[in-house]
Amino acid sequence: MSRRFILLTGCSGGGKSTLLQSLSAKGFATVEEPGRRIVADEIAKGGTALPWLDMGAFARRAVEMAQSDLQRATEHEGLVFFDRGIFDAAVALEHSGGPSIRETLGAARAYAGRVFVVPPWEEIFGQDAERRHHFNAAVQEYHRITDALDALGYDGRVLPRVSVRDRVEMVLQGCTGRSARSP
C-alpha cells in the first residue's frame, strides 16, 4: 500500500472529477477515472466494452487500466489523488459476475487506508454521453462501494455536500492533518 495514493470514490455524479480537477490545479498529481477514459475510447472506436452494453468487459478493462495507473503513479513524488481506481473497478467486476473484490485486489492495498467518499447528491448529478445511467443506479453503486470499503477495513470518510473549495480543504486536512493550500 502506498500512503501517498489517495482514493476518491463514491456516488457517480457526486463531484469526484470536479474535486480532482481542483486538486490538480493546486499542483497535486492526479489520475482521472478509468471508466470515463474507457467509455470515450470505446465510443470513438465503435467498441462494445461499455457499461450499458457489456459491463463485464468494461470492468475488466477498468481493472487493467487502474493497474497501469497505479504503476505510473509511483513515478510521482508526494500525494497522488485517484478519481476512482482499481477498487471501484473491482466492485464493478464482482457486480457483473466476475471474481470477488478480494480476488481482484489481492492481499495488498493499493491506496492509503483513509478513502474519501462522495455521497449521492441528486442536485449535481447529471447524465451525458458517457454517463447514461440514472440517479437510482448511481445510488445502488454507491452502496456497493461503501459496503466493500467497510468489508475490507478502509476508513471511508464521507464528504459533506459543500463547496468544492471546502471539500478540497477537508481532503487535504484528512491526508496531512493540517490545512494545506499547496502541495
Largest sheet: 5 strands, parallel
Radius of gyration: 15 Å
**Overall CATH class:** Alpha Beta
The CATH superfamily appears as: P-loop containing nucleotide triphosphate hydrolases
Contiguous low-pLDDT stretches (5 residues minimum) are: none
Spatial ordering of strands, largest sheet: 2-3-1-4-5
The third-level CATH topology is: Rossmann fold
Number of domains: 1
Please bin the fraction of helical residues. 40-55%
Principal-axes shape call = globular
CA(first)-CA(last) distance: 21 Å
How is this structure best described in words?
The protein is an alpha/beta fold. The chain has one domain: Rossmann fold, CATH 3.40.50. It has helices at 16-25, 34-45, 55-73, 86-95, 101-105, 135-151, 164-176; strands at residues 5-10, 29-31, 80-83, 114-118, 155-158. The chain has a five-stranded parallel β-sheet with strand order 2-3-1-4-5, with helices on both faces. Helix 6 (135-151) links the parallel strand 4 (114-118) and strand 5 (155-158). The radius of gyration is 15 Å and the shape is globular. The two termini are 21 Å apart. The mean pLDDT is 87.
Provide key terms for this protein.
5 strands, P-loop_NTPase, 183 residues, five-stranded parallel β-sheet, alpha/beta, NadR/Ttd14_AAA_dom, Rossmann fold, ATPase-like protein
